[in-house]
Specification:
alpha/beta; Aspartate Aminotransferase, domain 2; Aspartate Aminotransferase, domain 1; 2 domains; five-stranded mixed beta sheet; 12 strands; about 40% helix
Length: about 375
């Protein structure tokens, strides 16, 4: 028999008591508020959000679990989750450089990151392998930004050297480790101060969640968390659950993607209609020596230039039947895109040329399909 009137029972009834047995997988915690045993406990948690859950914009069990896993993978003391990769990078730049701090960045960056840094007005862009230019530009700068493996040129940063130069000049280092993943590189161990991920990509791996993460020292992540509290770029619990699920197979997916990418790169390097191929695992790649020293995996990305410029590149894209014409990367499915008109559309023709992106460049995110099927699709598309 109900203890309450129907209106109260409808709103509050049926809540199950805690029973023996814990779920093997953390459930999705969609709640936004949490109840407390007393006013004193409420006040205690309110004063120190690290001691309990209060409001999901501050902390949530799902985002806490994901942050803990990424921190462990990156050998970091702490991590914090964001609604997107760009939200994470924006927070990292703000915390490390502040409002007026000068930033030095490599030219070889994801287009939106390049655009974000360009709008700051005081950013200096240098080549990823131009050691002298980096050292000169870092003097008086607050922050150096690099990508472990650049999108889409696949240039590999010598992170230990970058960090040494930056720190000697008094600057800190933010590394976007999205393409390499923590299985391919751990930038913090090489001297980076913060590591960013677009967790939408390889960490999730299934093209069904938009997410970002920053990892670093407890002190820096504390600053990051306070900024996130003010700006509200909060990762949803459902998203955190999906990314955590994807991470369970990251090592298997990356191994397969890298295996396929090596086979695809070798095929493209020998194709008569392909002008150039960029893949760090190729002995002929200009970044092969650095990549062999920095990376534990050459990864699943291949960039190549089709003879005949943009028209020929678009024709090759249109000829694909298995590989998807789609943006983003790092999913189980292979995707192909034209960087100059998609991921790097924000760059001017001059900026594209300086960054090494030609009208005939295509970016291929190699998935986990069978390598022979992918090669057959590309062979047909390039005829």
């Amino acid at each position: 028999m109900s203890k309450h009137r129907p209106e109260t029972a409808a709103a509050r009834g049926g809540r199950p008591a805690q029973q023996p047995g814990l779920p093997a997988v953390t459930p999705v915690h969609r709640e936004t508020i949490y109840e407390f045993d007393s006013a004193g406990q409420f006040a205690e948690v309110m004063a120190d959000s690290g001691r309990g859950y209060l409001y999901s914009r501050i902390r949530n069990p799902n985002t806490d679990e994901l942050a803990a896993v990424v921190a462990e993978l990156e050998a970091a003391p702490a991590a914090h989750c964001f609604a997107s990769g760009m939200a994470a990078i924006s927070a990292g730049v703000d915390v490390l450089a502040g409002a007026g701090g000068r930033v030095v960045a490599t030219r070889e960056l994801y287009g939106q990151t390049y655009s974000l840094l360009r709008t700051r007005g005081a950013t200096v862009f240098v080549g990823v392998d131009d050691r002298a230019a980096l050292a000169a530009a870092a003097e008086g700068a607050a922050l150096v930004v690099v990508e472990t493996v650049s999108n889409p040129q696949l240039a590999v940063a010598d992170i230990a050297d970058v960090a040494a130069l930056a720190h000697a000049a008094g600057a800190r280092v933010l590394v976007d480790n999205t393409l390499a993943t923590p299985l391919g590189c751990r930038p913090l161990e090489l001297g980076a101060d913060l590591v960013a991920h677009s967790a939408t990509k390889y960490l999730n791996g299934h093209s069904d969640a938009l997410a970002g993460v920053l990892a670093g020292s407890a002190e820096l992540i504390g600053e990051v968390a306070r900024r996130a509290l003010d700006t509200g770029a909060t990762m949803a619990p459902d998203t955190a659950w999906l990314v955590r699920r994807g991470l369970r197979t990251l090592h298997l997916r990356l191994e397969r993607s890298a295996h396929n990418a090596a086979a695809v790169a070798a095929f493209l390097a020998a194709h008569p209609h392909v002008a150039t191929v960029r893949y760090p695992g190729l002995a002929s790649d200009p970044q092969h020596a650095v990549a062999s020293r920095v990376l534990h995996s050459y990864g699943g990305m291949v960039t190549f230039d089709v003879d005949g410029g943009q028209r020929a590149a678009e024709a090759a894209m249109d000829g694909c039947r298995l590989i998807l014409r789609a943006t983003s990367l790092g999913g189980v499915e292979s995707t192909i895109s034209h960087p100059a008109s998609t991921s790097h559309r924000q760059l001017s023709p001059v900026e594209l040329r300086v960054a090494g992106i030609s009208p005939g460049s295509l970016r291929l995110s190699v998935g986990i399909e069978h390598e022979d099927d992918l090669i057959a699709d590309l062979d047909r598309a390039l005829r």
